[in-house]
Amino acid sequence: MTRIIADISVSLDGFVTGPDPGPESGLGTGGEALHTWAFSDDPEDRRILHEATARSGAVILGRHLFDVVDGPHGWDDKVGYGAAEVGKPAFVVVTSSPPESVRLTGLDWTFVTTGLPDAVTAAREHAEAASAAGGKELDVVLMGGGATIRSALDAGLIDVLSLHLAPVVLGAGTPLFTGGAPRTLVQRSVTATSTATHLIYDVL
Q1: Are 142 and 158 in contact (CB under 8 A)?
Q2: How far apart are CA 32 and CA 163, in angstroms?
Q3: Which of 23, 57, 139, 189 could form a disulfide with 130 if both were Cys (CB 3.0 to 4.6 A apart)?
């Protein structure tokens, strides 16, 4: 079955954005340091980024994150999920209501208004269709934000947790973990680079 992989960058003190995130500054004050690894020339960082995007048959994100990436200071041809990589996955947005318009019309957007489990089902269908068309197994990647990943963990929807631990202490921002149901993790790999420590866990 298609794996559901939560993949997100996090600070040493557990934040996935700095203070005051929003459409004007998606990662908040100082939060850009979380994604230094994604723009690094380190060969291992490049390999990890390439492998992550290459395995993505569909990507899930919450509405707040969508508003950031589709906003005026969001993604473009050079910055964004899979930018400069081969192919683009389908994107599934969990939201209470679809937006009136979408700036990034060149991407495949699906808006699910009936909750996260239904968004996972829709994303899995996209990934399985892409797998069949491409002849290789693809995953569903849950890219955030933090609240969406926390909800998915609490609901038992995640198979793999992939964390990119950035060497920065933000002091405040959006926390990745704030309690919730306990989960047992099995560490599968640790890759240290010049910009981050990349951690992969199976979620039991």
Answers
A1: yes
A2: 16
A3: 57
The phi and psi torsions of 185 (rounded to 5 degrees) equal: -115, 145
- The predicted structure's pLDDT at residue 87: 61
Q: How far is CA 22 from CA 28, 116, 128, 149, 188, in A?
A: 7, 22, 33, 18, 33
128: part of which helix (H) or strand (E)? helix 116-134
Backbone phi, psi, residue 50, to 5°: -65, -45
- Amino acid 114: pLDDT: 98
| 142 three-class SS | strand
- Rounded to two decimals, what is the model's pTM? 0.93
Short-list 81, 83, 35, 15, CA closest to 195: 35
What is the residue-wise DSSP string for 57-90? Answer: EEEEEEHHHHHHHTSTTS--SSSSTTTTSSS--E
